[in-house]
Amino acid sequence: MDPRQPVKFYQTGTFTVGNRLLDTDERSVQANMERTNSLNSGHRACQGCGEALGARYALDAAMRATDNQLVAVNATGCLEVFSTPYPETSWQIPWLHSLFGNAAAVASGVAAALKVRGREHVRVIAQGGDGGTTDIGFGCLSGMFERNDDVLYICYDNEAYMNTGVQRSSATPLAARTATTPAVGPHPGAESGRGKNVPVIAMAHNIPYVATASVANLRDLEEKVARAILIRGARYVHIHVPCPLGWGSAPADTIRVARAAVESGLFPLYEAEHGEVTGRTPIRRRVPVDDYLKLQRRFAHLFSPKRDDARLGQIQAIADRNIVNYGLLDTEDARG
Amino acid sequence: MLRQIEGSRAVAEAIALARPEVICAYPITPQTHIVEGLSELVKAGELRGCEFINVESEFAALSVAIGASAAGARSYTATSSQGLLFMAEAVYNAAGLGLPIVMTIGNRAIGAPINIWNDHSDSMSMRDSGWIQLHAETNQEALDLHIQAFRLAETLSMPVMVCMDGFILTHAVERVDMPTQVEVDSYLIPFEPRQVLDPAEPVSMGAMVGPEAFMEVRYLAHHKQMQALELIPQLAEEFELRFGRKSGGLLRSYRCEDAETIVVALGSVNGTVQEVVDAMRAQGVRIGSVAITAFRPFPLDAVRAAIGHAKRVVVLEKSLAVGLGGILSDGVRKSLSGIQLKGYTVIAGLGGRNITRASLHKLFEAAGRDELEAVTFLDLNTSVVERELVRERLQRRSGPTAESVLRQLGTVASGIG
Question: Under CATH, domain B2-243 is a member of which superfamily?
C-alpha cells in the first residue's frame, strides 16, 4: 500500500475520488497547480489513450521528485509520433528520440555523459511501448540492466504494435485479436502464452528496482515512479496502458478496462528490489477475467457466436496463478 | 615523440589525447585492439574524465554514443565489417541528428562468406549515410586524422568516420610521431555542442518531420558536407603548422604533373602504388597516382584538377558494387564530366587478397597500352571461377559456392579428397 496514503479511497465508496480527503501536500502530483505538464496538451493521441495518460503522470511525478532535473529518451512509437508532429512538440522537458530499438542504450549514453560532466543530479528516463521494449529494444534493454546503468526505463504496455496498426508483439496476451493474429480459424487471436514477462526478466537481472503499475491506480503509479527515479542504477517500471483503438474498448472506459485487468489478477501490481518482490498492491474487489475481456472487441470471438470455455479457462487460470504467485488477495472483502 | 607501435595502439593513444568523454566498445576484428587500448588507458587512470562502456552490440555502441553526444559529451566508438552493418540504422540516425561522433572503421570485408580480412566493403556500404568518411594511408595519418576528425565533426556538428585498413594498418607495427597533450589541446578546443539535452533549456531532438520539411533537412546535411570540402583542407593546413607534418586534406597527388596514366585509390594501398609509380617512372613511363583521403564529401573539383590532364585513369578499388563494378570509379568519372579520357576500374584486394607490386606493375603496363577491360578483377583465379560455373551448369543442387571453391583449391586440387 502507498505509505503516503492515510485515507483508504474505497472508504468513500468509489475508486476515483480521494485527493480532497488528503492534506494539500499529500495530494497527487497531477492535483498540484505547480505540476510541470511534461507532456503538454495539444498532442495527437487518440481519445482515451492510456499511454498518454500514463506518460503524463509518470513524467510529472519524476519531474517533481527530481526538482525538474530530468532528461527523457523516447523509442519510436505512438508516444513519439503523437507528441512531436513537426514543427510542434508537447514535451516541456529535454527529450530525444533516436530509434525504435535503442532507447535504453541512448539513455545509457545520456547518463554516462551526465556523470562524466558532473551533472548526476539530472536523472534519465528512457521510455517506449511494448514493441520497443519487449521486442526490438530488448537487447539494448537487457544490456542497460546488466551494466546497471543509471537509467529508469518505463514501458507503456498496450500489448501490441499500435502505431503501425495493431500488430502482435511479444506482449500480446493469449487469444487477443490483432492485425497479424486475426480472429479467424480454429484458434482465433494470439496463440502463444502470456507474452514475454519483462518485469520478471528485469528482476532476473538483479537490478535495484522493478515495478508494475497501471493507469487504473494513478496514485500507485506516481508513487512508484517517484521512488524509482531517485534510486541509482538501472530501474524498470512497466505500466499497463489500455489502447481504445487497438483493444476495441470505449475511450471512456480506459480506466475501467485497466482496473478490470488489475482486479482480475491478469495484471499484477508489485514492486521488487534486487530481484526480490518487496511489495504488491492487493486486489480490492476481485472480478472474473470475463469482466475484463468483455469490455474489449479484441476478445469478442471468445464470447460470440458461442462462448469459448476452453480459452476463457486458460485465461482465468493465468489470472488465478498471478493471484497466488504474487499474493494479491489478503482481505476477506477481496476474496468475496 | 617517435614510437614504434601497432597502428591500433597509435590510434588508441591519439583518441586519448583528444580527451573523449564517453567511449563505447564492442569487440569485432580488426578494430578490437583500439578499444582494448582505450579501456586500459581509462582503467589505469591515464585517460581521466572518460566513461568507458562495454556494450552488448554494435547497435548499442553507436546508440550509447548518440545519447552521450546529445547530452554534450565528446563521444567515440570503433567498429568493422558486420559490426558497421549491425549498427547501420544508428549510423544514419547519428548523421540525421547532426551529432559529432567520431568512429574508427578498421576496414574489413562483409560476409557471406565470412571473412575477417581487409577491403572497403564495410565503410562503402555507409557512404550515403551522411557521415564524413576519411581514409588513412599510413598509421601516422590514421593517428593524425583522428585528431582532425574531432575538430571537423564538432565544427560542423556532424559525425566522422576515420577508415583505416584492417590488419594492414590496424595490426602493423610502424614508426609514428605521437604528439603531446599540449600540442593536441592547442589544436582541439573543448567540445561546445550546437544542441544539447539540458533541463535549463529543454529541446525536443529527433522529432518527426513530414514531407513539408524533410527535403530541406536533407539538403542542409548535403550543404554541410559541401562546407566540409573547404574545412578539411583548412584543418589539414592548420595541423601542418602546429604539428609539422602533412596529414589529411582532400587528396594527395604523387608524380602526376606530366602523367599520362594516373592511378586513383583509397587507403594503404597507395604506398604500394607509389612504389610501382617510382619503378615505372625510372623506366620512363609517365605515370602518377592520387590518394583520395576524403571519400565523403567527395572532392569532385580537386579530383578533376588532379587527373583531368591525363590520358587515362585507373581506379583501384577494394570494394565491389555487385552488378556494376566500382564505387570509387563512379565519383572519379563524375569529377571528369566533359573531359574525354579512358577510364578503367580495377577491383583488387577483396577479402584481404594481397595487392602486390608485381601485379600492379603488369596491370599499369597493360593500362598504358589500353589493353584493360572496363572492369578488371586483379589476380582473379579464372580457372577456379570457370570450374565453379561448369559445376553449377551441370547440377541444380550444386551446393554453396564458397565451400566448392575452397574444395577446389584445397582437397581436390591437392589430390587429398
Answer: Thiamin diphosphate (ThDP)-binding fold, Pyr/PP domains (3.40.50.970)
